[in-house]
Amino acid sequence: MQIDYNYAFFDEGSKREIRRATLKAIAIPGYQVPFASREMPIGRGWGTGGLQLTLSLVGKDDVVKVIDQGSDESVNAVNIKKLIEKTTGISTTDETSEATIIQSRHRIPEVPLKDGQIMVLQVPLPEPLRFYEPSEFETKKLHAEKEYSGAWLMLFEQIMKYGNLATDADHPVMVDDRYVMAPSPIPRFDNSKMNYSEALILLGAGREKKIYAVPPYTKVVSLAFDDYPFEVESFEDNHCKQCGAAGVFMDEIYDDETETTYFQCNDTSYCVARLNHQTV
Amino acid sequence: MGYVAVKGGTRAIEESIKRLKFERVKKGTVLDVHKIETGMRGLIDQVMSESSLFSEILAAIAIKQAEGNPEEAVFLLRAYRSTLSRKHYSRTISSEDMLTERRISASFKDIPGGQILGATTDYTHRLLDFGLMMESEEEALQWLEGFEEENGQQENVTDLAKLPKVLDYLRKEGLMPECSDDDREPDDVTKKSLEFPSTRSQRLQILTRGQTGALTSLAYAVIRGYGALHPTVGELRVGSLPVCIDNPFNQYNDEDDSYYIGEIKATETEMLIPVTVEKERGKKEIKFEIGYGICLGQNETKAIAMGILDHALQTGNKEYPTGDEEFVLYHIDSVESTGFISHLKMPHYVTFQSKLDSVRKTKKQEAESKEESSLCK
């Protein structure tokens, strides 16, 4: 009993259905469109939302890049890439600028995205209001009525408790002055890359069965107060130990031998490209 | 240094997959899929039910590949199921047409058609049968011969395909109100995601494909203390249901023109749940409500649990988590719950770095404000 899978894993009907939901998401920036999320051959919660978007969009001429927490070589990124290659036969790349579709978990690459590229973000929890309202029925109403006092109160309470905005990754954003949206757990550092992005940004939550989008050139503002402005992660004056870059998101790495902490670019392909450029 | 920053994820995966295969075959024997299919009925039925895919052979392959781990086997089958296009819908199947193998009622001793114990572990002594260590196929065949001979001599007087429903009897006796058929087209949770408030068809679908253990635990909570009711099994039956599809070339969809395409084995329960209803002037009366459970294969605990949860959600008493449809329906799917729990194994370096930054910022502020207050003194 040997069974061949269709191009890009899904049957064509499924792909069309996912694309319909995607089109709706693009038409209503920041709004979470429910869709009939399929079970995938990778774990639910391991990027099935992003993978469904990628597989529904990928054509024979596409070049796909997959990163996980900034790395092209991370086991999960490799695994997703392998599945895409196996079911489509298309080629993949590490170069951000060469890719037409970039699927990522929790990072937007350092190389600025261009017009015509699609950024696909994997989303674990698409509902930015879930922390104070567990019910989906209720949060749907809150979004419909643009009732976001809870989101503001959540930030206000952090200031009262900790003295500052204590959000980490997944800091909520306001999209097109209408919907409060979870940008997926990208670091705060990456939030501004969504604002007026030239590339289309699609967000897919497989387990939670939602697709949402930030169309190109859409206003995206991180929630904050005038007197407590939004702040990104600070790496102070540290430079990447490998390529010397500054002003990028970095991994903090502890060296057992010298017992010191050093920093390194989190975006590995960016770092490698810089290193290659330096040696030339 | 963690495994994310290291180049070589590709090789690591390849080696890990080899390691996995090694674990499966290292003893030098290979499990025969056919033997899984014939000898692991319990696991096959559970996996088929949680996967919502009826195919014993595919379930057997999945079980082999998963080395008998049900969550992994269900995952494999569901992922395969995603790639299948929906070619036909069956005609409505009526459970009265079940070819019954087993059928019991805990409410009445004498039910029309009689109690049929069938195959069940309920009255076995759970003593480990060491004889199975040495069981041979010849022995089994010999035993089978004797069994068939014995069975052939018995005359069967009841028509097992036409057993009346216990609940119909209750209705005829006026002990239960008649309920009308809901012939609305059911929703399909695999084609349109769940929205709240949910419909009964959506709830039943999510429940029937739910993880056996999750359903059992939640239903146990309902009858133990969170709703504290004691339901009775009105009827539990196990048997085969005939599946027919309409003639695709005849738009009139006559029953006579439909095709029989096979049968599926299922367990069905109708639970009687006593509820107190208030009548006029504070008078109270006890009345029975129904909880319905059905699932693929012989999964009796699951079917009963489903019946209990169906009723708990129908009543929707938000005092208990088991009456909250979002709480129950969002968390009982095997693929979803195991997927999200296991995703915690993935690297979270970026998110953790971001959290670290937040913690440090807060600490710094704390230190500064302490300094300030000590200066003030």
From TrEMBL, chain A:
Keywords: Lyase
GO molecular function: 4 iron, 4 sulfur cluster binding; lyase activity
Domain of life from the UniProt record: Bacteria
GO BP term, pick one: organic phosphonate catabolic process
InterPro entries: PhnJ (IPR010306)
Pfam families named in the record: PhnJ
Protein name as catalogued: Carbon-phosphorus lyase complex subunit PhnJ
TrEMBL record, chain B:
InterPro entries for this protein: PhnI
Keywords per UniProt: Lyase
Gene Ontology terms describing biological process: organic phosphonate metabolic process
GO terms for MF: lyase activity
Pfam families: PhnI (PF05861)
Superkingdom of the organism of origin: Bacteria
Protein name: Carbon-phosphorus lyase
